[in-house]
Amino acid sequence: MSLADLYSALADPTRLRMLELLHDQPRPVHQLAGAFDISRPAISRHLRVLREAGLVKEVKQGRENLYSFQRDKLKPGVAWLEKHLAKAPVKPKPKVVEKLELAAAPKPKTAAEPIEAPKPVARRKAVPKPAPQPIASPPRQTPQLSFFDL
User: Fold this and answer.
1) Is the entire prediction scored with pTM above 0.70?
2) How many whole angstroms separate alpha carbon 65 and alpha carbon 128?
3) 56 pLDDT band (50/70/90 cuts)?
4) Domains of the chain: which residue ranges?
C-alpha cells in the first residue's frame, strides 16, 4: 500500500466516520450501514476502499462480516507527516550584494517615512453657458411661376 492509497482512503468524510465507529470494536456491516443515510451498496464500496488500503480487515463470523480497524496501517502516513512537520534545518542566508544607486533615481519610500498627502488640484471656476438662442426658421420663399403656369 502506498501513501497515496492511504491518503485517498482517508480523504472521504464517510470513510473517516466509519473508522471512528470501528475505533473501539469490530462491527458488522448492518451496524455500520445504520449510522449513515446512504445505500447499502455505497457502504460496501467505502468498505472496499478501506479494505484495499489495509485500514480495515474483514472477518467472516457465521452469516455476518465483521470489520475491524487496523491502526498499524496508519504508521507510514503518521511517520511521513512527522518527518515533514519537523522543524527544517536553518540554512545560512546568502550575502546580499549592494547595488549602486544612480544619482537621478528617486529613493523608494520606506515604512518609516511619512506619506505625503496629495496636493489639492486647482479647479477652474465654472463659467455660465450662454442661454441657447432659438433657431430661426428659414424665410418663406415665394413660388416662382413658370411659363406653363400662365
Assistant:
1) no
2) 94
3) very high
4) 3-85
Which CATH number is 3-85's, of 2.60.120.510, 2.60.40.10, 3.20.20.150, 1.10.10.10? 1.10.10.10
From 50, 47, 49, 85, select the one nearest 71 (Cα to Cα). 50
Reduced to 3 states, what is the DSSP secondary structure of residue 57?
A: strand
The answer to whether 68 and 26 have CB atoms below 8 angstroms apart is yes
Which DSSP symbol is given to 53?
T
Task: For residue 57, report the phi and psi dihedrals to the nearest 5 degrees.
Answer: -120, 135
HSE-CB for 34 with a 13 A CA cutoff: 6
What is the Cα–Cα distance from 54 to 30, expressed in whole angstroms? 21
DSSP letter assigned to residue 71: G
Which residue, among 33, 30, 37, has the nearest Cα to 65 in the 3D structure?
30
CB 30 within 8 A of CB 83: no
Cell of 118: 496629495
> Looking at residue 49, what is its pLDDT?
93
